[in-house]
Amino acid sequence: MTSPASNTGLDGLRPHSCVLCQKRKVKCDRTTPCSGCVKAQVECEYRDPVPPRRRKKKLPEAAMVARLRRYEDVIRKAGIDTSLLEEDSRGESLPIRQPISAESRLEYSSPPSFNAPISVPSGNTSKSGPGKFISREGRSLYLDNNLWKSVSNELQDAEGILPEGSTDSILGPNEHEVEDANGDFLFVGKPSRQSLTHLHPDPLQIFKLWQMFLDGVNPLTKFIHAPTLQQQILNATSDLSSISRPLEALMFAIYCAALLPMQDDEARKSFHESKSTLMARYRQAAQQALVNAGVLGTSDLMVLQAFLLFIISARLAYSPHVLWSMSGICIRIGQRIGLHRDGSKLGLSVFETEMRRRIWWRSMVTDTTIGHMAGCESFFSDTEDVKLPSNVNDSALDPDMTEPPVELAGATEMTFCLLGYEMGVWLLKNSKSKTSTFDGYWQFVNSSSVPLDQKDQLIDELETMLETRYVRYCDPSIPLHLVSRIVAGSVVTLARIRAHHPRRYQEKGEEVPQAERELLFKLCKHLVECANILFVTRKAQRFFWHIDFHFPWESIIVMLSELRHRSIGKDVAEGWVLVNTALQRQFKSLHQPRKNPLHLAVANLAIKAWSAHVAESERRRVPPVPQPEIITKFWIYTQGYKSSNPSRTTNDTAVHFTPATTPVKNKYSFPTGQRATPSDTVATASEGDTALQNNINNQSTGLSPTDWNYRTDSVNFDLDMSAITELYPTDDSPMNWVEWDDLIQQFQQQKDVDMDMDLPPSFG
């Protein structure tokens, strides 16, 4: 479509190039139609250029002098000697005579609206702490620097101090030529803003991804208000070319996150492509969308939501160190927006206050989790000021509400997230050390200097609180409630294991009392049972992507250590079944090219424990427990390690053996394929389901036998048991728990080494 001819000049030419020639960056002859469009056989279109931004009129000299004097007066009140201004003009810095008093700090408070213009009440000091909060049109900024707070009084327009927003404007034809001022060069070699319309899936697939996100990711994160966003996505799908930058960034982040709980066959069935292909495409698009939205300089809550969701979805794509840096940026953006100050004290609306709490707490928990993976401790910076999100469903929240929602005394959509937040509050409250260590806020639980009775009392209080507020209301027939119930029990059990861990005795050079060993073995069995229940429950499959990041390594190692000394009895049979089930999932992708020190160490420990069991069974002339399948895999795994490292010496901690040329069956072996009886191990599949359910703090999970997939007949008896016993004699030496802690830390830092994790995210 061409513009009216009246816009042509006296010479019959148009005053500017057509849209196609502008886009292709070629010279346009400015005829109607131009020769370039005729040659390309496309419609020639002319658009008037966007008018330049109007500059503010230059103030008269008298007004400038008056304003300068006001600035000098403010600076003097801040404790700076203005008589040294001449020295400063020669390059010398100004000394600060005295710190700025807390009384001089003011605060801006925005009215309870996302889009209302800013209001500036003077002299209002918030209980949430000093600072000024500025908000306008969905963007906000929190000033906690005294100089900025002082001079901000002189800024008549919020635009003068708010960072240039992500804006809701659409990418124009020349947007890619705009000089980057938001620091996005940190993520791309040559920053550019590009149209991403062609990378969106079709509307039907968009709604499929949205539903997958609602089912598998949103229940575990809950920092997006689904009803509001769903309407925005519905409107956006009608015209993806006019979508705002913040919403587009959030939509691409949702596409990435929605793929997390999906299996590859599901992806091929629904989208006719592999999960890895889809994930790579949408991750790159999400990176570019974040660049388009100016993520590093944003003051837009929706862009922050998109960035946080992108970080959560990228946990398998980048190394923990890269992710930790990214989560740190996320926290800094949140602080700049003022999320670390509770919205109820900033004059914000009820809805915005609640959403800001949700975003801040999820950001803090994500940063802490990734920091633990990276071996770096994160800080709950100023978190005490921000209240926990309300225990309400999304349906109880509305952007137009004027009264806070009534919290429910029971389980809601927020229950799972609140369990984690309550645990963080408990750790923060009882932690005496804020040093940056791998243990972090768990130090008071791990420390041997804190009396054991005191730690047990604190853990009892935590358990009672979680049970009273959340757990007793959970309905095991609802997948999210089932996961919440089991996670709550696991968190308390983990705290007890850390409080009673053998390392507290090793630090003092003492032996672990028998009663403590019994308690530890029972606690570790319980925690591994919890993990196994989650992993074999089909209705919880959509949440595996999150649960996989919390594998109970400590409990497995303690159990294997004890199994070296516990060779006979029902506890031994149950212990081996639990260990086998847990490790089968963790080691399902073992392969020879790459070895992980923690995997090798656990394999070594497991084979030693199994060797001790076989030797004790032979000594007592009783049949051993059927050999766990994981022992066979460990044998092959460590054999491959030895063959690929012939220079290793016997002093290494890795497993070393000479493979048997002719496998010899142990004289106590059962016929291959024969199911073990309950007396030999534990209950068979249907009986074992009930036993395991009842073992979890006697709390019924409401699972039927069909929800389980335990196998006690997955046994391989073709290994030479005598060779194992000879090569891995019973080792009664004490465990070096410091070295095991180091191995776990190294494993967290090197997780997913088979992916290209050393490269930073290429945002664009």
Automatic annotation (TrEMBL):
Residues 102-131 are annotated as: Disordered. The keyword Metal-binding applies. Residues 17-46 form the Zn(2)-C6 fungal-type domain. One of its GO terms (cellular component) is nucleus. It is found in: Nucleus. Its main location: nucleus. GO terms for molecular function: DNA binding; DNA-binding transcription factor activity, RNA polymerase II-specific; zinc ion binding. CDD domains: fungal_TF_MHR (cd12148), GAL4 (cd00067). GO terms for biological process: DNA-templated transcription. Transmembrane segments: none annotated. Pfam families: Fungal_trans (PF04082), Zn_clus (PF00172). Gene3D superfamilies: Zn(2)-C6 fungal-type DNA-binding domain. Keywords: DNA-binding, Metal-binding, Nucleus, Transcription, Transcription regulation. Signal peptide: none annotated. This is Fungal-specific transcription factor domain-containing protein. It comes from Talaromyces proteolyticus.
